[in-house]
Amino acid sequence: MARVWVLLSVVLASLFFSQGATFENQRLFNNAVIRVQHLHQLAAKMMDDFEEALLPEERKQLSKIFPLSFCNSDSIEAPSGKDETQKSSVLKLLHTSYRLIESWEFPSKNLGNPNHISEKLADLKMGIGVLIEGCLDGQTSLDENDSLAPPFEDFYQTLTEGNLRKSFRLLSCFKKDMHKVETYLSVAKCRRSLDSNCTL
């Protein structure tokens, strides 16, 4: 009888620990999603403010340019479209989000300091890193070659285009990438929760 009680105690303790870890995991995911939502909203506002200051002709010209423009993050392998995003593993979504945030380490310094964007990106990157470690659970890495990837250079400063176009591209790409990260983290968070419906 005593052995049964000991076994029951171990099972209950294990269950309690597991539930605690699940709640902590959800808290971390919630925090990451809230942070990237804030960055996405900030990016949208900055883009709106920039466009409002443009002359009608400038706005017209720039709107034709961006769909054909290249963003620094375009070189990062990422799920494209809803189907591919939903088929991707949580680890893949986290890893892609990490790389997208990392790609803004240098360019974010040109987005303006009043909003402390660089610090917010650094905090989010750290949080995603913690989530990745939790998902790896003993594995060394998602992709051995990825750890050897060089740091991103300040791609947007090397462009040979006017200041107006450069600013437009910078803001447009930032907004696009924050939207991607928000989508990936939201799907990853849903997958790690008890919610079975994670459709976009």
From TrEMBL:
Compartments, as annotated in UniProt: Secreted
Q: What keywords are annotated for this sequence in UniProt?
A: Disulfide bond, Hormone, Metal-binding, Secreted, Signal, Zinc
Q: What is this protein called in UniProt?
A: Growth hormone
The family line of this record is: Belongs to the somatotropin/prolactin family.
Entry-linked InterPro entries: 4_helix_cytokine-like_core (IPR009079), Somatotropin (IPR034975), Somatotropin/Prolactin (IPR001400), Somatotropin_CS (IPR018116)
Q: Which GO terms describe its biological process?
A: animal organ development; growth hormone receptor signaling pathway; positive regulation of growth; positive regulation of receptor signaling pathway via JAK-STAT; response to nutrient levels
In Pfam terms, one family for this protein is Hormone_1
Source species taxonomy? Eukaryota, Metazoa, Chordata, Craniata, Vertebrata
**Which GO cellular component term is one of those annotated?**
extracellular space
